[in-house]
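Late entry, written up from scratch paper. The run itself happened at the end of the previous shift, but nothing got recorded in the book at the time, so transcribing now.
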Amino acid sequence: MPNAVIVDVVRTPVGRRNGRLSGWHAVDLAAQPLRALIDRNDLDPALVEDVVYGCTMTVGEQAMNIGRNAALAAGFPDTVPGTTVDRQCGSAQQAVHFAAQAVMAGAMDVVIGGGVEAMSRVPIGSTTDHGPGDAYGPTVHERFDFIHQGLSAEEIASRWGIGREEMDRFSLQSHERAARAMSDDDGRRRPRTRRDVPWLAAQAVEPRTAPRGETLMPRP
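Output as recorded:
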């Protein structure tokens, strides 16, 4: 079985609700990491055999297969396919899994996996707020009582006997791994201009206007 190797990683800066990135159309924002991957790896985009994007709120600007539309907006030839995955909060991770599985199965050689969620423009719940109808249907409602994620976490901890100390240790391990990932080999934190974050310019926001041409980078 072939090995799947992550060659490069790119993301946009992390934005805030109605912040300076909210002027970006979701498709154009999703295209920026794709363009950066191609440019800095000197890769012919025609060699990409699929673009798999995760997205939870696939409505409005994020509808009509945003994975495919992002690839087109990034300048990929129309011969490169794209698809969109919805596994709710795990959508982007699932997209990367599917990309890796395609390589490991020997079906493809070059696949891009990622995700997008422009929540200032397409808020959470947008896929069901306006109908028509109910997303789950009467049969599913007969089987399950739906509760908030916070209560779900409490239920999972109780049902599987996961204690607070165990969760704290898991959380600490996650933060330690993140700190290592953001540090150089000598343990020093990387400079503010990290390689995995491309520069983006703020776009005009209506009715709240952000200045054009302002360059944004993530907080350290």
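Residues 164-181 form the longest helix (18 residues).
(Scratch paper discarded after transcription.)
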